[in-house]
UniProtKB/TrEMBL annotation:
Residues 8-328 form the NADH:flavin oxidoreductase/NADH oxidase N-terminal domain. The keyword Oxidoreductase applies. InterPro entries: Aldolase_TIM (IPR013785), OxRdtase_FMN_N (IPR001155), Oye-like (IPR045247). Transmembrane segments: none annotated. Signal peptide: none annotated. Keywords: Oxidoreductase. CDD domains: OYE_like_FMN. Its cofactor is FMN. This is NADH:flavin oxidoreductase/NADH oxidase N-terminal domain-containing protein. It comes from Acinetobacter beijerinckii CIP 110307.
């Protein structure tokens, strides 16, 4: 049984408590995709978390699927991220950067006219999330073998920049229907080369990128973000337990620091079957409540718990959870808006004077 406010070893580093800020895209980095002082303030406010996972951060300009999300391919971006890292470290919290390529979840209007890339030329259902006026997703172009190796090299460069920025480690975004997930799951991958077909082949890119991260960082500073429930962005897999079970076993063999799963609330959650395969730290997420989060820790269903929406609206979430204080509600209108409103202006809990 573990208390929320107790330290946890995560690979090569220790976090001061078991509360994790979930990665949250807030689209406030501007067109240059460079973190700024407003973002420093936002992360600093939430550095009561033992571990912060940054918002998804693109590894190249062509990896993007949304305007104004940050990147980490240049020295300039690394220097800008370093301000955030320093502010978080000053409060004794750890911070890893979530590295991201969206694959087919993009649009030519976000890629200087280029067609989005994917394992296979399969058009996602639906519309591009934040583009206005609304436009449907287009049919992506299947990546060549050589282009896949170029993308792996971009992941490696981003991991190196993350080191320059002073992060505590990196998290591979392999969830939510973006590029790595598109390779992994059978619905979006009908390739007939070594990156498609069998589970081993579909997991090849994920593991290749993880191995590259391990080269740069060592296994104890690498995490992977998975979404076995597979309902984002028109995803699906013929046999999720076999697919994700294989991935978790492979990650365990590599001794990586942590796995983060977004699926806890699902009725048919695979978590109970997946977690025993992994000896590193496990971070549970999705629709947790103050009570369910504590129960998960008490029952050792997970080593740490992560909040998204509640952390947006409650910068002092640790204190609120510890003392059963009421939670602010999130303003959905300002999730991806510009500026401080609905970003850094959520109130901390004020004790009423007696
Ligand atoms: C505004 C917003 C942005 C998000 N951005 C990301 C992201 O960049 N990377 C990611 O892996 N998940 C992202 N998610 C998913 C969250 O990390 C989390 O899995 C989800 O909000 C469920 O947790 P919750 O129920 O505590 O909010 C985002 C969710 C929201 C609401």
């Amino acid at each position: 049984m573990a208390e929320l406010n107790s330290a946890l070893q995560v690979g090569d580093f220790t976090i001061k408590n078991r509360l994790v800020l979930a990665p949250l895209t807030r689209a406030r980095s501007g067109a240059e995709r460079i973190p700024n002082d407003l973002m420093v303030e936002y992360y600093q406010q939430r550095a009561n978390a033992g571990l912060i996972i940054t918002e998804a951060t693109v590894i190249s300009p062509k990896a993007a699927g949304y305007a104004n999300t940050p990147g980490l391919w240049s020295q300039e971006q690394a220097q800008a991220w370093n301000k955030i890292v320093k502010a978080v470290h000053a409060q004794g919290s750890k911070i890893v950067v979530q590295l991201w390529h969206v694959g087919r979840i993009s649009h030519p209007d976000l890629l200087d006219g280029d067609i989005p890339v994917a394992p296979s030329a399969i058009q996602p259902a639906g519309e591009v999330s934040l583009l206005r006026p609304k436009r449907p997703f287009v049919t992506p172009r299947a990546l060549s073998h050589e282009e896949i190796q170029e993308i792996v090299a971009q992941y490696k460069n981003a991991a190196e920049q993350a080191k320059a920025a002073g992060f505590d480690g990196v998290e591979l975004h392999a969830a939510n229907g973006y590029l790595i997930d598109q390779f992994l799951q059978s619905k979006t991958n009908i390739r007939d080369d070594e990156y498609g077909g069998s589970i081993e082949n579909r997991a090849r890119l994920l593991l290749q990128v993880v191995d590259t991260f391990i080269e740069v960082w060592g296994a104890g500073r690498v995490g992977v973000h998975l979404a076995p429930r597979a309902d984002s962005h028109d995803m699906g897999d013929d046999n999720p337990l076999a697919t994700f079970g294989y991935v978790v076993e492979q990650l365990d063999q590599r001794n990586i620091a942590f796995i983060f799963t977004r699926e806890y609330a699902a009725e048919d959650s695979l978590q109970p079957k997946l977690r025993p395969k992994f000896k590193g730290a496990w971070i549970a997420n999705e629709k947790l409540t103050p009570d369910s989060a504590k129960k998960i820790l008490e029952e050792n269903q997970s080593d740490a718990v992560s909040f998204g929406l509640a952390y947006i609206a409650n910068p002092d979430l640790l204190e609120r959870l510890e003392h059963d204080l009421p939670l602010n509600q999130v303003n959905f209108q300002t999730l991806y808006a510009d500026g401080a409103e609905g970003y850094t202006d959520y109130s901390v809990f004020e004790k009423l004077e007696a």
